[in-house]
Amino acid sequence: MTDVTESARGARFQAHIPPPYPDESLLGFVNRALSLTAVPRIRRALPLAGIEKQSSLAIATTLTDAKDVAALATLLRCDDEAISARVYSIGTFDHSTTEVLNFFGVKIRAQYRENKIRRVSPRALAIAPYHRAIWEMRPFSFDPLTREKLLDTCPVCGAKLGWARAPGPFFCDRCVDAEGMPSTDLRDHPQPIVDIDDVEALDFVTALVDPTPERRSAARRALPAQWRNFSNSALFETVITLASGLTMDPAKSAHAQGRVKRNEQFDLITPDLLALAGRAIIGGDEGFAPLAERYRADRAKRPRLYGRRKELGPLASITYDRHLEPSIRHQLRQCVDANTKYIGRKHPVRTKENREGLLCIEELARKFGLRSETLRRLSRSGAVAVYRSEGTKARIRMALVDIETLVPQLREAITEDEAAALLGMPLHVLPGLVERKLIDRVEWNVEGLVPEQAEYNWTSVQNLLTDVWNRAKPAAPVGAVPLIAAASSIQSGGAPWGTIVAAILAGDVEVFVNERRARKNIRYGLSVVDVPAFAKAIQSRPDAADERLDPKWIGTGTASEILKVSERLASRLAEIRPDLLNSRDDKRTPFLAAEVRRLTATYIFLPEVMDRADMHARRCCAWLRKQGVEPAFRLAPTKDFAYLRREVEPLIAARSDEIAERSSALQALADDVRGQLIKAVDHGAEIKATAERLGVPYRQAVRWVMSWRKRGVSAPQKFGVKSPLDMEVGWLRALVSDHPGISLSEIQTRLAEDRGVKRCLTAIWNCLERHKIELAGRRRPAKTATHCNIKKGDLR
After folding, report:
1. Which of 240, 239, 244, 235 has the alpha carbon at shortest distance from 216?
2. Radius of gyration of the chain from its Cα atoms, rounded to whole angstroms
3. pLDDT digits (tens, 9 = 90+) for 358-414
4. CA end-to-end span of the chain, whole Å?
5. DSSP state of 161
6. Rounded to two decimals, what is the model's pTM?
7. Phi, psi of 690, rounded to the nearest 5 degrees
8. Most distant CA pair in the chain: distance in Å?
């Protein structure tokens, strides 16, 4: 073993290192090369090549820099191509965002590669002593050529084989003798041979991702015509998907194909399953049949499923697996259909009637572009004939001729629940929008199509949303208030949403699009800047008094508007205190409107107090507590407080007067930086953003705003605390004058007894000196470098 020398290209080992084998892995080649040198670890070899900040275990995927590749190639005395060809570049599939590795030209999922544990075949190492790259493939628990089960644990010490040390490809990296040399030769411990019936199918699967191009080409020659247009990457992913479905618990994973990720899951993918999945591809319909029968063997273990899902389980769902290429899914769908037709199960649901012209709900939805839920409501209405077999869970089928006449109306019809969700409006607002001709009702030709529910025209609802969004300005400025909060300030008893929508369309009010809100509907997707002007504009409209706001039953959203709380708090109130707010089983309108109004007449919740008093939650609670007002009840120990309205209303009225006085004083503020910041924050701007814009430190800006809010003061305030002794200066002068020989301790006693002021001797002495009151025979000594009160800055 030799040392490292310098060459024109960089550091290189003096030892003769054979070039890598065509199918050798990068870690295996580095391990084999270092075993011929005096460098025992990979992480020590990388700095010799000038490669920094690289994990030794991750170089197969992270060594992407051309300079690093050249440096490592120089060190190991090989070509740059020999290194770069074994680095797996990271990317994604063309049809999905799944992370993949370029494994010698074949894209595989990153989770399919084992990068920590070294797996070897002792028989293959005896043939040629190097680490095969295909041993890194976690779905393969065997060597493709020898059929020997791979060894990943030392049979002597029991430790997992790793890459930390570099003793050579056929030694355990943990076992050493007394001289520190490797002592366990893995070639002396052969493993069992895998017994497989369909060797051809198994060879096809392993050859799809074999590092040698010749074997990959041989795998493609075995493909039938319908599979030849797919890449090796797509075919290998399909094989693993088909095999993975058979490793899942049928009772838990009947709806999804799933993917294996952990080592114990990969152990379940046996060579038999891989051969079965491979035969399903290269064997045509006859080869696909054994795989389907293997899935059918678990049909009794799939509860609560019927039809094809119960019969084939995950195999029936594979055609919807978006992790596979769309063309692969289409081909698999044809295979499944051909198989079900072959065994007489093309239509799992059987009826006694003539099946010509009868389609299930899913087929009708695809044919006419309808929603499945609309067709289910149609089947329940009794308006059309429904056909199904004797089973209660069998599929529902309807005749094409019965559906075709209703298609135009079915495409446009949505329920009142769906219309309200799209608009973000309470249910009782929809009839008012119809009266204003803002949306349209659906008039059915068939009576009783949807019992006890009104239906609305989908296009009219979408047109209304489009018109409202066209009227709204594109970006809400800082400090904008959500429309639902602005609407709740217009009046008590619920917001007049119909009038608000009409005012937006007429351009009477100014609203903005709230881009930060995920719910893009009218109530939650818009914002208002000037809330008082908005409320005044709505109240001044002549149609505001005509809006009906007296439904008997209301939803959670309307109840939260009346109570001036969030929907979450309203739901928690009904759940925790049903004695105050009782709810019925109807989820659409669970609350009695009269009961909600009685509740808001008796109690006022903290969010309303915060809004009307213009205070933060903690400050608001402290303010009420200081005024002697305690919560009447609370839904949680530290939040969701409710107070008696009769106790809080007088305090809010006085607070409103203070706010009005402060607003008038705001106009008289100077137009300097401090005045600009206070005015901007008072109008709703954020303190931090305004401070950055004006170039003011954030903490300084907070002090300015707090001083204005607490005391209405905009001038700079003096800092520091005045000592109570300063209030007793006259008394102290008289005391010292009457008693010239008095001591400090006697002054301390007299202060406590006569004036009620308790202070330490140092504080009393500092006060006397500060006001130049001298005691007889006492004088403060000059400060020296050894004095205890010397300042830190005096020592240079």
Report:
1. 235
2. 41
3. 788 888 888 888 888 788 878 887 778 887 654 445 678 888 888 887 887 777 778
4. 61
5. P
6. 0.47
7. -65, -40
8. 126
